[in-house]
Amino acid sequence: MSLLKSIIIEDKINASDHLQNAKIFYKNLKDIKIQYYLLFIQSTILFLFSSCSHVHSTEIDHSFSVAINAKESLHDIDKVHFEPFDDLNLGFFKGEIWIKVEVKNENSPQSFMFVNDDLINRNYVCYKLDSLKTLRLLAQDQDESKEDQRTFNSPNPNFKLDLAPNEHATFIIVSKSDGRTVNATPQLITMDSYYRLNSENNIWSVVFFGILGCLLIINIYQWSIFKQRIYLFYMLYMLSTIFMYMGLEGQLHNFGLKTLTIDHIVFITIRFWVLTLIMYTSKFLEIQTVYPKYYQFIKWLLLVVLGGTTLYQFIFYNSSIAHLHYFENTLSFLWLLVILSVILLSAKTRKLELKYYIIPLLCFLVFITFGLIDGQFQVLPGTPFIYIKLGTIVEFIGFTYFMGILIREKLKRTEKLELELLEKQKELSLSTERLKQKKKLLANKKGIEKTDIISIFKLLENSLSSEMEWAEFKLKFKELNPNFLNQLLAKHPNLTKSEIRLLTLIKIGYSQKEIASILNIAPDSVKKAKNRVRKKMNLSETIINDYLETL
Question: How far apart, in whole angstroms, are the C-alpha atoms of residue 389 and residue 336?
Fold first, then answer.
């Protein structure tokens, strides 16, 4: 029966080995395919990125001036004091900005585009000063109730300025902000330049959302294979990123939603993005295992802060947006501190995970830096927002790749431990079966001879290495030979446990080589031990066996 069990267990181990090899081969094959896909995506990004170029201002004679929070009304435009400026990046601005654009067209009819980089503020209206020195709305529908009158639904504010031959025109662009980040520095470009810029932005949007969609599908596929919960947080993080960019780029305006509704959606998306990013970071670096109490603190912090701000947002639905721009940016330092603390706490015990996490994060920060440099100095190809998108793509490609490697390495370690456990279970099963046989044999013997004892020790010789097994055998031996140990200890009370064990084996009739095998020592060590105990008992070498037979 024990032989049959051994064969079954060995067959299971062999089958597990074949299955393991097949899994590794299949996963390696998938890794190669995924790496080719990711390489293709990166090559596409670099190709499109190399085609981007800056759009320079037109050479037509024009000038800009600004009036910030003017006390006069638009009807008294002649009384408003406009001042020249170099930069209109106003930070968290609250109030009204009037930008005057004066253009002198000395050629045939021309059209130009007024643009700036104010991506967050969707409140821009353009007026033209007519011959009667009155302002009229530039938008074709003349709907003054609309908060934003831009010509094209593009992330950047834009207005088409049409000029007649030899016309000197004045335009007033009005923008209101309730505390948003305002970067209203204007630029006047040709229509061809704007179409090229808009085409590049559209291509980048298609590429950006297309790549994120492909990466999302890849992670859904890997989630179905590995069944790891971290993929759930990662995919939610990707989805919140996609919706956040859609809100910032004005994609949600295509659905006819009100600006206030879109603002609320964007803030909800940003909070969900923060939640999933921090939870994904915690799962990636296994902070719940390293510092479980701090992990609980993070969850409570997210619940209180994000839940509290969301509750405030909807209680004061019509007025909360004005304060949330500043408040959410202030909270960003708190979330950055939380992520940094998770990184530091996992640095000692999760070095491999930290390496795989830091590489994509640093790549993202590098591209963010490029975007900031380009926004200030305009020395790099493309626009600043493209660098942010490019950094996001590289970040997600890195996380997708390194997370797959990390999970596969963990699964391999787990499978190795399972195989080792199976081997231990096999050894334990065989040892248990042998022990049952030994107990059964000893229990059925009322008397025992030398040859029987030798047979028993043949069964025990692989399991007499521990003190517990030796003690169990000694009890059985005392039942069968009650006088031997008693007389031996009575005549030689100074014998040690190891000496009694040696004399017992000699009594049974084991040779020096067999004793060495049972006790897991060298034959020379048995000989030396035998000489020491013989001298201790004051016996000669020739009579020690005969002496033990008398006991």
Answer: 20
Element (H, E) at 340: helix 320-345
The rounded distance, in Å, linking the Cα atoms of 72 and 96 is: 11
Nearest-angstrom CA–CA distance, 328 and 309? 9
Residue ranges in 481-538 assigned as alpha helix (H): 482-491, 497-508, 512-519, 523-536
Query: How many helices and strands, by DSSP H and E, does the chain display?
Result: 16, 8
Asked whether the beta carbons of 327 and 341 are under 8 A apart, the reply is no
Contacts of 172 (CB under 8 A, 6+ apart): 74, 77, 98, 99, 100, 101, 126, 127, 128, 129, 135
Burial letters 90-109, b for 16+ CB under 10 A, else e: beebbeebbbbbebebeeee
Pairing of strands 89-104, 61-68: antiparallel
Inter-residue contact 105 to 60 (CB < 8 Å): yes
Q: How many CB atoms lie within 10 A of CB 58?
A: 18
Task: Output phi, psi for 161, to 5 deg.
Answer: -110, 110
Q: What is d(CA 211, CA 244) in angstroms, rounded to the nearest whole number?
A: 16
pTM of the model: 0.66
Query: What are the mean pLDDT values of the chain's consecutive 10-residue runs (551 residues total)?
Result: 42 46 47 52 51 57 92 86 89 91 89 89 90 79 73 89 91 91 89 88 88 94 89 94 87 82 92 95 92 94 96 93 87 93 92 93 89 70 79 94 89 80 77 67 50 49 55 64 76 82 78 78 83 82 74 73
In the three-class reduction of DSSP (H, G, I as helix; E, B as strand; rest coil), residue 190 is classed as strand
CA distance 53 to 200: 9
CB 295 within 8 A of CB 287: yes
The answer to whether residues 375 and 117 touch, using CB atoms and an 8 Å cutoff, is yes
Helix residue spans in 51-100 (DSSP H): none
Give me 436's structure tokens. 């049952």
Q: What is the DSSP letter of 54?
A: P
d(CA 551, CA 533): 16
User: Within 13 A of 528's CA, how many CA atoms are on the CB side?
Assistant: 5
